[in-house]
Design brief:
globular; 7-stranded mixed sheet; single chain; alpha/beta
């Protein structure tokens, strides 16, 4: 069943999105997601895209949208520091429990992090940033909402917009389903991992949405082991 063809997206409500999720289950799921991000090299992938910009512009401001526990942007900032680059981090999430988890994570790492609430379906980004990153979020949205989010991010991006998300293929579905069970005991992650891949985009689908959002010459590529990566820079960046 896991290897059946995946011709179209199947957008479902994930367990992690439940408003009455118990705090202990939320924390366990966030730890599991952080481990999956580490396994997939999510932060390293973003840093590779950012590094060419950081070579000529330092420091840089970076906003991470729908940040969850902020494990990815905080790790990107650590990788940047190792290269002598400074990222001034901001992160946003509509859910207060996620912002609290991100604040606690930043405090543990001794990293400065500006946090604010943001509704990706309604709000405008209240500032402009050199870099905007969106990780593992677009698969939660229907196509018009993705176009709106990308358009909103485009208007607030000075130098580089990056979208990292799962890539909907049969192999990736099997890989994510198996890996989630190996690295976390969270039943929420076990279930949502499969739902997330089924809701994810193909590369042509993401490229088409980027075009609708006005991201002229956006680049969408596969990234190891199971994700796609969209990168776009303003013409005058």
């Amino acid at each position: 069943m896991l290897l059946a063809p995946l011709p179209t997206r199947v957008l479902s409500h994930e367990l992690m999105d439940a408003p009455d999720l118990a705090p202990d289950q939320t924390h366990l799921a966030l730890r599991g997601l952080a481990r999956l991000n580490t396994f997939s090299g999510a932060a390293r992938t973003l840093w590779r895209a950012i590094e060419p910009v950081a070579r000529t512009h330092n420091p840089l401001s970076l906003l991470d949208i729908a940040t969850g526990s902020a494990d990815v942007p905080l790790e990107v900032a650590r990788l940047a520091r190792r290269r002598g680059c400074t990222l001034n981090l901001a992160a946003c999430d509509i859910r207060p429990e996620m912002r609290a988890a991100a604040a606690a994570n930043a405090a543990r790492r001794g990293q400065s992090l500006r946090l604010f609430s943001f509704d990706a379906l309604r709000d405008q980004i209240p500032d402009r940033f050199d870099i905007i990153t969106i990780s593992l979020f677009t698969h939660h949205l229907d196509d018009p909402a993705v176009v709106r989010l990308l358009s909103t991010a485009r208007q607030a991006t000075r130098r580089l917009l990056i979208v990292s998300d799962l890539h909907r293929t049969p192999v990736n579905l099997a890989l994510v389903a198996t890996t989630s069970r190996l690295i976390t005991t969270s039943r929420i992650v076990h279930t949502d991992a499969v739902l997330s891949v089924r809701a994810a985009f193909s590369i042509p689908e993401m490229a088409a949405l980027a075009s609708q959002a006005g991201l002229v010459n956006a680049r969408v590529t596969r990234t190891f082991p199971c994700r796609l990566l969209l990168t776009w820079s303003p013409p005058d960046a």
